[in-house]
Amino acid sequence: MWSELRALRDGIDLGTPPRDGEPVTLSVDGIPVTVAAGSSVLLAAGIAGCTVPKLCASDTLEAFGSCRVCLVEIEGRRGYPASCTTPVDEGMQVRTTSDMLAKLRRGVIELYLSDFPEGDIDGGWSQLNTTLDQVGVHRLADDHPYRSGANHQGGVLDMSNPYFVFDQAKCIVCSRCVRACEEIQGTFALTIDGRGFGSTVVAGQNESFLESDCVSCGACVQACPSDALIEKSLFPGGYERADSSQA
Amino acid sequence: MPIPVKPDQSTITTCAYCGVGCGFKAETSGGQIVRMTPWKEGKANHGHSCVKGRFAFDYYRHPDRVRSPMIRVSIEDPWREVSWDEAFAHAAGELKRIQETYGSGSVGAVSSSRCTNEEIYLMQKFARVGLRNNNIDNCSRICHSPTQFGLSATLGAGAASQHFDSILRSDVILVVGANPTEGHPVFGSMMKRSVRRGANLLVIDPRRTETVDSPHCRASVHLALRPGTNVLVLDSIAHVVVTERLYDEAFVRARCDWDDFELWMSQVGDVRYSPDVVGPEAGLEPDAIRELARRYAAGPNSTIYYGLGVTEHSQGSTGVMCLGNLAMACGMIGREGVGVNPLRGQGNVQGGSCLGSWPHMFTGYRFVTDAATRAVFENEWKIDLDGEPGLRLPNMFDAAVAGSFKGLYIQGEDPVQSDPNRHHVEAALRNMECVIVQDLYETETTKFAHVLLPGSSSLEKNGTFTNAERRVSMVRKIVEPVAGLEDWEITVGMINAMGYELKYDHPSEVLDEIARTSPAYSGMSFELIERVGSVQWPCNTAAPEGTEVLHTVTFPRGKGSFMLTEYVPTKERVDDRFPLLLTTGRILSQYNAGTQTRRTANNAWYDDDVLDISADDAAQRGLRNGDRVRVASRYGETELSITVSGRVHPGVVYTTFHFAHTMVNAVTSDLNDWATNCPEYKVTAVEVTKVTKVTKVTKVTEVTS
Amino acid sequence: MTARVFVPCDALSVALGADEVAARLVAETAARSLDVTVVRNGSRGLFWLEPMIEVDVGGMRHAYGPVEADDIPSLIDAGLLDAGAHRTNLGPTDQIPELERQTRLTFARVGVIDPRSLDDYLAHGGFDGLRRALAMSPSDVVDEVEASGLRGRGGAAFPTGIKWRTVLGAPASPKYVVANADEGDSGTFADRMVMEGDPFCLIEAMAIAAHAVGATHGVIYCRSEYPHSIATLEHCIGVARQYGWLGTSIAGSVLEFDIEVRVGAGAYICGEETSMLESIEGRRGMVRPKPPLPALEGLYGKPTVVNNIITLASVPWILAHGGAAYSGHGVGRSAGTLPVQLAGNIRRGGLVEVPFGITVRELIEDFGGGTASGRPARAVQIGGPLGAYFHNDQLDTVLDYEAIAAAGGLLGHGGVVVFDDTVDMAVQARFAMEFCAVESCGKCTPCRVGSTRGVELIDKIVLGEQRSANIAQLEDLCEVLEHGSLCALGGLTPYPVRSALQHFPEDFGQRNQQDEHDAQENI
Amino acid sequence: MIRDRIVRKRHLSERPSLPAAQASVVVEALAANHHDPTRLLVVLQDIQHRLGYLPHDAVHPIAIGLGLSRAEVHGVISFYHDLRTEPAGRHILKVCQAESCQATGGRALTQHIEDVVGCNLGQTTADGAITLEAVYCLGLCAASPAVMIDERPIARVTTARIDRVIDDARTAS
Questions:
Q1: CATH number, span C425-522
Q2: What is the nearest CA distance from C228 to chain D, expressed in angstroms?
């Protein structure tokens, strides 16, 4: 009756909120799995024990479908639907791995890495690190054509909040913070400024977090998969931005 | 290259900052807390948090911590550090000396809702087996004692009828005298989620709070009543329900005492409570009262959440009864999505109420005058118990001023700052011969103490908290207590020093004792809580893993009882000298008297109490944003800066009470609830005047502005 | 008897001087005390002849064009009102070859009537379709649309009847009809011509849709670049309300339906239906994932018909004449007619409504008359900025959904943009990526980041840097865009890029192999 | 950019207020749209129509009036290219950059316009007469290239024709 809240498990992220509903049985990589109607394919894959990489998806937030690393193949359907935004159907046959899926996921991750500070990857323990491990790409090759492109590595470093930093250089624009502020906290203090490549996460009217309507509940920090929003207390020597980047 | 520290250990515990009781994971590295993250499986918070619980934990390692027991003969003397044993012996010796000189009833104790259930239980045990009297009270006296009284009288249980998640099943949410988004932020977020999903929000509050109007959350009806008219307005709502026949007759006939109901109908149905009469007196549009009543009665699932804006009045208990009556009349009780729910201030106010820290009640709200109940405890404790109710905290202070009360053991409370009529409290403490304070820091109250026992924070001890939805959750020791002892061990030391031999190896043994003696807790144990995460009482053989929704079949008192709720205006009135009504509340980033949060970076948001005043009232007094003003009442005065705010109506001013130096409680009235002595913090007639600054500063201001 | 002279009022005619012509005509006839009414009609779509004025002589329309304001005195002198001979005389309008060869169903009234005149509309068969629909059950109306074989003309070509049936079957209420007038594809203007030439047709169509699916509210989302369309629609919606064609008890039936115009704010992506719904709801035009389909959870989360203007404008004819009559036109699964828009470097640009089945070459050469510059056509982009570039040796491809797809393209909204041999296709490919970067909503990563990387890669390719590696990366990127994007903007941007690369490799430095070799030597 | 100054959160009522004339436009736009948050874009368009742009400090009253947050309103403003946060020149000249106009010399025309006017697309001339904007299709593609000045479309644009238009715009008030 309260699955979206009470079926959440510490240390496990099912990717999309658990649902209440009639049981639906499908197969993921040949493994039969039964989940509630209205659940996502991503959630079903997780229950079946199949690891589908993800970045913008979290079981505390409604599915969004922006990161495109949770793509899967579904028998009888064209293309490579995002498993987070695809609801399960009875009898559905899902494949979570294939050469094409691996290639597409690598391609998407390379796009992320083309605008991410290289020095912040080794030794990190964010969800992004986990996803990179799953996809099997950790850095762009030195001669990768994406290097030296336009980037946001000189973006805002917001230290105004006493407890956390927002480092735009590490932001992958997945909107999890924006959505957490809206869906979980209900303050609506964050937004995406601009659009397209120019999209950036900002507080209020592109102002510091402290000046904005942010109430510092921490939901955005909790939601951030790439440590762009992170507690200052984890940096005993103070937070410094990495100076090298892949870009 | 910024690689974040990776914590080496993570421990699940419960936040102490408010009655929501969020589950947290305390993550440590090398024995120090590096961060607190919300626990996804916490049933009160489901992985959410607020700025206090999530970030404001540095207070535990603040240099101001009291690190050793200290004693002194006179409050003029400097403190002398002593061993625990010497402190216990000295304190107990003094209490026994006072009792020998002034009588058994000349000493007492007060417990804190920031402490665990086990510690609160031990405090009442200290009074009953150590002091051998019933002079034990708890700090809910000054916040939610009317809840206990009013809900027991109507429904039979002085606690929230629902679990927090229930609000997602509500079609109509009535919030009375509470501001969840500031005071109970994680529940506030849940409430907003329900509103965004289509629930209709109704608010009764003198201020246009964030609860009334914030992004995607706007009250459809807001009754901005004049402070002090709660009961009048609630009776008027009942009047509409009665006269428009909006009540649920089938429910009332099945579940409630029909004769009581008819009597109640004849009272609230009288024309003196019609919206047309009440509206002008309460400063409301009569149609708004009708609209609210109709929406609430229409449901289908309407729920009530209320806070100190209901209880902290001279008719606080009556106000609570009004809410119980209203819910029963409309059949809005006994299932998910409905109910009557107090929003508790401190982390363990519900526990403070349940665990017998009352001068007239044992655990589970059973009277000390009842021989059968006494027998339960006499059997458990192997000691004869006093059957006479003891003194309430305000009575203890009154008695102290009068000279008959001389010793007090205060656990984690700062009555000088928190309690009403500061001058009276100070006079009472000055008159005592032994004041024992157990606290994290030196406070306004420790200035009057003779024994100072270094308390342990909720990060430094094991035990349980009961939150505002009756949920008992585990508090776990993350770091060692600064002075070596957890609060429960200190109280055990005091009990032993008083001559009653007692030994517990772990707080779980205390909870076991509570379970043995208290029906609502009879199924409760650390083992159960460990296994299922948290448990809502009642927990017993009928409900082995606890109870989410109360009153589903019957009320604990059998038939629900409609209490008569005649409106009696407070004696606190505005006049020419004091034309404004001051009301008080709290702000998100600070917590109560601020002892903890003021010692964190939360001051970045709010570093002083500020007086909100309407533009009209400010203009009349020649005041501008940021001006310093003198706030004077019949009881005292203080100085504050003002904010000209659209959130208060003309005639009303508002402030918080988080900062010791502002001494807001020096201004508040000493009137209190007729039934429980809960102080009337929410209504004080005041005048606000500009503090004239030296000419030089004024000139500088003019140049820059 | 009052003579009637028609001067088009559509935006392109105005852009070519129609307002000045009309003003001069009024002034000149007044000065000569001639009894003339100047009627502002829509455009016939023969834009190389605009401003094209027409005179009604004995019920027959005679055309003159292109006319400039300064031509008016000589026209009147030449006996304009009696269809007299003049340098600009085109003869009877219906016999202008480029018009005569068309099959005008959807555009039957466009250019003929005064778009703001309800009487004119009614006199030309207006609301016949709605009257017939109201006499039918909603399900029968949907059957009729299904029988017509009509597919969405906005680009996705989804069968309209199936979409309507989904909305009809959805239990939730209220339901909405949204008309997508965010015609952002370069080379297209058919929607604009309907809105400015036959707006009541759109109103009628939406009312039919409302009846068919049980909707009560309609929204026309029109791009801000079309101020003339917006003004015309606003006027005509007001008239329709006044005369009971919108509001309650429409045409004496129980149908209750009203329409509001919402204006876009400069975002191509809002032509994508879910992004449009977000925009109508007052938010950033961020694409929503599908499912849920808008037909089930659309505007404000309620069942919603979202149709393109041309799709809707085809419906009244279908209802008035029957689905079978419509499906009698066209070929295979491409039933009915397609309003093709000839644009770019073309001699006779304009609107050509023909049954599916015509070849691209017939369109460009027979109707369009070749390039405007007189140079050879080199490339043709079909289907807007996300459509493939066709090489001039592919021009015999038949214009229907399946044939265009088989040739590696897509028909889109029926826009055909011709380029002569001066075009640099690497520049065009780069523009395709740049357009995606400019107009991306920024939600999904392939489109948000990939489009910018695409521009950078093409720049490097053109400069000859690491050419083969960059081309390989560009191809990989196109794969990620096509299969990984959330919506068609990212998903289709590879079409123009790949087709340019495939058909015009020489523009990407293929002929400069030596340069690349040199460049590599220098590294 | 580094934002590290720790400033106290400004209280709502301390936010800078709009000049009265602008404030009344905001109030009217909100009322005309029934304070309906789903009409945010319409409200913004109405206000820009009357003020010429959307002042920074108008965002707060708009948000309050519609029950939205400032961030949401800001996000919407920053998404749509039509919406501007600075005043434009007296005339707005939109020059089509899309394919049909590219096929008919649109790139050269754009360069010519930038040279004649003396600023680039997205900029306003020093005398405040003209703001140049890129536009992607005006629907005049059968007679490309095309521009639109204010709400007046001009098709089959030649350099001579556009020079006259620019001259007129510079001299007209």
A1: 1.20.1440.230
A2: 9
pLDDT in the model for residue A243? 59
Q: Regarding the domain delimited by D91-171, which CATH topology (the fold level of the hierarchy) does it fall under?
A: Glutaredoxin (3.40.30)
CATH fold, domain C3-96, is Glutaredoxin (3.40.30)
Q: Superfamily for C118-327?
A: NADH-ubiquinone oxidoreductase 51kDa subunit (3.40.50.11540)
Partners of A175 on chain C (C-beta within 8 Å) are: 443
pLDDT in tens, C67-99: 999 999 999 999 999 999 999 999 999 999 999
CA dist C171 and C169 (Å) reads: 6
Question: Nearest-CA residue of chain A relative to D1?
Answer: A156
Amino acid of residue C286 = M
* Distance of residue A177 Cα from the nearest chain D Cα, in angstroms: 13
Nearest CA to B329 out of B244, B228, B230, B224 is that of: B244
pLDDT tens per residue, range A144-187: 999 989 999 999 999 999 999 999 999 999 999 999 999 999 99
Cβ-defined contact of B216 to D68 (cutoff 8 Å): yes
Distances (CA, A) of C268 to A121, C415, C520, D105, D134: 36, 16, 40, 23, 13
Q: How far apart are CA B681 and CA B420, in angstroms?
A: 7
pLDDT computed for residue D15 by the predictor: 58
* Residue D70 Cα, gap to closest chain A Cα (Å): 6
Residue B573 lies in a domain: no
pLDDT, tens digit, for every residue of C442-459? 999 999 999 999 999 999
Amino acid at A40: S
Least confident of B273-282, B588-597, C281-290, D146-155: B588-597
C-alpha B477/C-alpha B482 separation (Å) is 12
CATH topology of domain C330-420: Ubiquitin-like (UB roll) (3.10.20)
pLDDT reported for residue D1: 67
B150 and B133 part of one domain: no
Separation in Å, CA A198 to CA A136, A192, B506, C441, C451:
28, 10, 58, 10, 12
Residue C284 to residue C277: CA distance in whole angstroms: 10
The 10s digit of each residue's pLDDT in C129-178 is 999 999 999 999 999 999 999 999 988 889 999 999 999 999 999 999 99
Write the ipTM. 0.93
Check CB contact of D3 with chain B, cutoff 8 Å.
no
d(CA C220, CA C197): 16
CA–CA distance, B523 with D157 (Å, rounded to integer) = 87
DSSP 3-state assignment of B238? helix
In the DSSP assignment, the letter for residue C424 is -
Listing DSSP states for A135-146 in one string gives HT--S--TT-TT
Tokens matching residue B258: 């029909």
Share of chain B above pLDDT 70, in %: 98
Q: Do D67 and B645 touch (CB under 8 A)?
A: no
Interchain contact, A188 vs D75, CB within 8 Å: no
* Alpha carbon B589 to chain centroid, angstroms: 17
Contact between B604 and A210 using a beta-carbon 8 Å cutoff: yes
- Residue by residue, DSSP assigns C214-251 as T--EEEEEE-TT-HHHHHHHHHHHHHHHHTTSSBSSGG
With beta carbons under 8 A apart, name residues in chain A contacting B181: 186
Q: What is the CA radius of gyration of chain B?
A: 25
Q: Give, in order, the Cα–Cα distances in Å from B17 to each of A148, B485, C2.
A: 49, 21, 86
3-state secondary structure at position B479: coil
Q: Residue C96, SS3?
A: coil
Mean pLDDT to the nearest integer, B404-427: 88
Where in the sequence is the domain holding B50, given as residue range(s)?
9-61
Cα separation, C475 vs C494, in Å, equals 9
Report the pLDDT value the prediction gives residue C359, as an integer from 0 to 100. Answer: 94
| Interchain pair B605, D9: CB under 8 A | yes
3-class secondary-structure state, position B90: helix
